[in-house]
Design brief:
This protein has about 400 residues and is of the alpha/beta class. It has 23 helices and eight strands. The structure holds 2-acetamido-2-deoxy-beta-D-glucopyranose (3 copies). The site of one 2-acetamido-2-deoxy-beta-D-glucopyranose (NAG) has 10 residues, from strand 7 and helix 17. This is ADP-ribosyl cyclase/cyclic ADP-ribose hydrolase.
């Protein structure tokens, strides 16, 4: 009974995290009650016990991937550890049921290891360190990469530095392009144009996921400026985070490039970028204009003897207002009374389940309907009880309008 009651919420949550749909602003909506963390951990244990390693359709691998999705939020990282996620993930790796489970569990630990508290937890666990050290030689490249990433994260700054000191010099004083794979094409073009303009550019052309941390660290060390090519995907990538945080630790000058239209960096990325000026390559402006602005920025930041004249408004300032950014037109602040009135207006006031929705949830549902229509429809149908096409239509049309 208890399980059934909970289940629809968890199911939605898992689906959402699997689809990487929950972002920083929306996190609190789904996690108002932190027992959801206990539930997902419990589900993983049940699934692990069952024959096909599944619980109600979800495999251990999928559930762990869902947990990894939850862990992306920095607050959740510590909660998950308090709820026992680390020993669980360690157990999954040790059990080695299949490669998929090992990969998801290792990556989940990597995501967790970005938090300071978790770093210390991991450091203290000698067994885990040994396990991870062995995994760095795993034949599955992504597993090895994730394990190295964890061991890197738990090093303190001095140790990181030492590793790099002894590595062979490639070049010094280059412009380093730190980016997520999805933006590679545009950035290769930028990199070529920068080279033609006389800049020394370092860009990892291979798939970042396969590159060694050593090469990354070396490149950051020797950069005179780092272009952080921001997007939601950049923020969600562990490799990109490692790179950007290292540049930040070493106090390298950073110029953010906007790669995704309308993106507002939040969480750890918002923290690193602060109110830095960015150059917009999201396609909002012509490529040539953006490139001109970038050269101008670099001219100031990177080059010795560069022109320090004031820049006549070439660049926009990042607005990082994480929570405000998600807000619509006041719908968020709707009281139950407002929701009631709205339901009456659209002719759905007889639906009991709708009465308990808050303005904030309505705003979230609206976004969900755009970003993940199939989840939206299944949720509205099953959990809000709008089974008739007519009601579904009314509700969806009205939601579009808010
Ligand atoms: C999963 O099951 C195996 C054996 O059935 C057990 O040894 C292992 O501890 C379990 N893992 C977790 C995470 O519960
Ligand atoms: C580039 O700079 C000009 C002003 O110098 C500005 O009008 C324009 O919006 C900037 N474009 C980008 C892409 O930042
Ligand atoms: C918010 O309200 C303003 C003014 O009432 C309107 O111009 C704007 O289009 C609305 N935005 C949204 C997202 O509904």
């Amino acid at each position: 009974m208890f399980i059934e009651l909970l289940f629809s919420d968890i199911k939605l949550l898992v689906l959402l995290t699997l689809a990487n749909i929950i972002n920083e602003e929306e996190n609190h909506l789904l996690l108002a009650d932190d027992s959801i963390f206990d539930d997902i951990i419990q589900m993983i244990k049940w699934a692990n016990k069952s024959e096909g390693h599944r619980f109600d359709g979800f495999s251990v691998e999928e559930l762990v991937s869902g947990l990894k999705g939850l862990a992306r939020n920095d607050q959740n990282k510590n909660i998950l550890t308090k709820k026992g996620a680390l020993p669980l993930l360690k157990e999954i790796i040790t059990t080695k049921y299949n490669d998929g489970e090992v990969l998801q569990a290792t990556e989940a630990i990597r995501v967790l290891s970005f938090s300071k508290d978790n770093k210390n937890h991991i450091k203290k666990d000698e067994n885990l360190i040994q396990l991870l050290t062995d995994l760095t030689k795993n034949t599955v490249e992504n597993v090895a990469n994730a394990a190295s990433g964890i061991l890197w994260n738990i090093k303190d700054d001095k140790e990181k530095h030492e590793n790099v000191k002894n590595s062979p010099a490639k070049s010094t004083g280059h412009v380093m392009i730190s980016y997520q794979w999805a933006d590679q094409k545009k950035l290769i073009q930028i990199s070529q144009m920068l080279s033609e303009a006389g800049y020394l550019v370092w860009m990892d052309i291979k798939d970042m996921e396969g590159s060694t941390l050593q090469a990354m660290a070396d490149a950051v060390e020797k950069a005179c400026v780092v272009l952080v090519c921001m997007s939601e995907r950049y923020k969600e990538s562990s490799n990109c985070r490692t790179e950007a945080e290292y540049a930040f630790t070493l106090k390298k000058p950073i110029i953010p490039l906007m790669m995704q239209r309308g993106y507002k960096p939040n969480g750890w990325l918002g923290m690193i970028l602060g109110a830095k000026l960015f150059v917009d390559f999201s396609g909002k402006y012509s490529f040539d204009d953006s490139f001109k602005n970038l050269s101008r920025q670099l001219g100031r930041d990177g080059k010795i003897g560069g022109d320090a004249d004031e820049v006549d408004g070439p660049i926009a300032v990042i607005r990082s207002v994480p929570l405000q950014a998600a807000r619509g037109n006041g719908t968020n602040e709707w009281s139950t009374n407002d929701v009631s009135k709205w339901l009456k207006k659209i002719g759905l006031n007889s639906k009991e389940k709708l009465q308990s929705l808050t303005g904030e949830q309505l705003t979230f549902l609206k976004k969900l309907s755009n970003r993940a229509p199939e989840f939206y429809f299944s949720y509205v149908k099953t959990d809000l009880g709008l089974h008739r096409l007519d009601d579904l239509m009314k509700f969806t049309n009205a939601i579009d309008q808010i």
